[in-house]
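Journal club prep — side note

Before the paper discussion, L.F. wants everyone to see what a predicted structure for a comparable chain looks like in token form. Sequence:
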Amino acid sequence: MKIKFKKSDLFFICAIIAMAAYELGGLTSEKADVTGERNGHGYVDLGLPSGTLWATNNLGATKPEGYGSYYAWGEIKTKATYTIDNSIWYDVGLDELKSQGVINSSGNLTSGYDAATANWGAGWRMPTLDEIKELKSRCRWSWTTVNGVKGYKVTGPSGKSIFLPAAGAESYLVGSIGYYWGSTAYDFSYFAFDSDNYDWYGNSRGLGLSVRPVSE
């Protein structure tokens, strides 16, 4: 015996399924607002005054909600564990970082020590403190869930957006806090967020954190 549904019944059933999916995992899909590509990696033009283009995915991820790989500050390869003892630049002073060519005169990582440049090629790099401040002040931040992954949807003046997953630090605090490296060494190394707060912090260069590349 075949069961026949009225159009109104089908509409109701679809609505129930959509509501259940939302309750279980939040948004079920997030299509990236890709503006273009560089070296095979997508970027989004958020319409920021600086013209900075933010990547659609974390370094090492294949989709916007992917956590990607973790890196220590100033290091271009991943490690099995991240500790003070195996950190190359944990307690190295700014003058020495300059003299060794790790940072430039502006205090930002040079290409040879920038994980984004090393892994995605020329045209990509880690964001500076000024670029992260701009992202915070010029965009609308909305805590949400994409395919079961919590994080922020960041919408720029252009109306386009990126998703920053709460990838934690290595295997710690995954799903509740996001930690992202910046390239600036002066009084700042990374920015962090949870559902209630978002700010930048210094030191702790030995941590294994996420990287969201930028381009110009």
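L.F.'s comment for the group: The first strand starts at residue 36 and ends at 38. Keep this in mind when we get to the figures.
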